[in-house]
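2024-03-11 09:14:02 INFO queue: dequeued item Galactose-binding domain-like protein, len=212
2024-03-11 09:14:02 INFO validating residues
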Amino acid sequence: MPDNHHHHHNEGCGHESHDHDHDSGDLGPNDNLFPHIDRPHVVALNAVGPGASVIKPWHARMNEQVYLESDADEQLIIRVPFTGSVKLRSLLLKAGPGDQTPQKIALFANEPSLDFDDVSDKSPAQEFEVAVGREVGEYAVRATKFTNVTSVTLFIPSNQGADTTRVYYIGFLGQWTQRKSNPVITVYEAQANIADHDKVQGTEGAFSTPHT
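2024-03-11 09:14:37 INFO prediction written
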């Protein structure tokens, strides 16, 4: 464990000059993916209120006025799509209080339509035990499982004993790249190719006579 921390400090060295540029001090880690979350399309299942309510900017991470609570039982699914491709470094979570804290969280990559029916058939990319506390916990992910992620789904199977589960804040740290050729454009390319072939066959005759 300690090795990891040394690692972070080394990575962090370059950030210092960056922090001086903005005096606000609460912009947080500059690899926070908040601006790249497709907030209008965040979905929470078995939840009271919209899923996007817990996707907050860094400065609002400790705010306890706005939260998401599970509805019929303690389980929650929160689907978070990104506006591009993400290399995820860690999940940030503030939940609770007390028994309403999730016991664990299962994290899925690129399962944008996961629901309670099929969540038990799929194995998560990673699972985390959640510690009870008021602060924001940072959970480092296995880089190899989260290198090319367009959506992340959190599944909370159980909590510490309460009837419902409460989540205040969800955030992500990592690198974002603009979506290049997937997923939509690939489909068009396939169709365009077919059209091109037709054109070639149809026009071959026309070009065989020299136009000089």
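2024-03-11 09:14:37 INFO annotate: The first helix runs from residue 2 to 12.
2024-03-11 09:14:38 INFO item closed
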